[in-house]
Design goal:
Strand content: 15-25%
Shape: flat
Oligomer: single chain
Helix content: 10-25%
Order of helices and strands: EEHEE
Radius of gyration: 20 Å
Largest sheet: 2 strands, antiparallel
Number of domains: 1
Strand order of the largest sheet: 1-2
Length: 69
């Protein structure tokens, strides 16, 4: 829902009745749009895998991605 003065994230929960996801998501989206508190996470430490494997119909396709230094 926002951040403290030292940058610690704080959370909020929206709860509702069974199968009320559409209503809950609209509340959460409205809150996000009104407050502009959301910051995208820094994912620069995540590396892409060097091997991509697809499994389908009993076949495995493997493609190696070039590793860049």
């Amino acid at each position: 829902m926002g951040y403290t003065s030292d940058g610690t994230p704080m959370g909020i929960q929206f709860m509702g009745e069974l199968l009320s996801e559409q209503k809950l998501l609209s509340f959460a989206y409205a809150f996000e749009q009104a407050t502009h508190f959301r910051m995208a996470p820094d994912l620069s430490f995540v590396h892409e895998p060097t091997v991509l494997a697809l499994i389908g119909l009993g076949y495995i396709f493997i493609r190696r991605r070039p590793v860049t230094p």
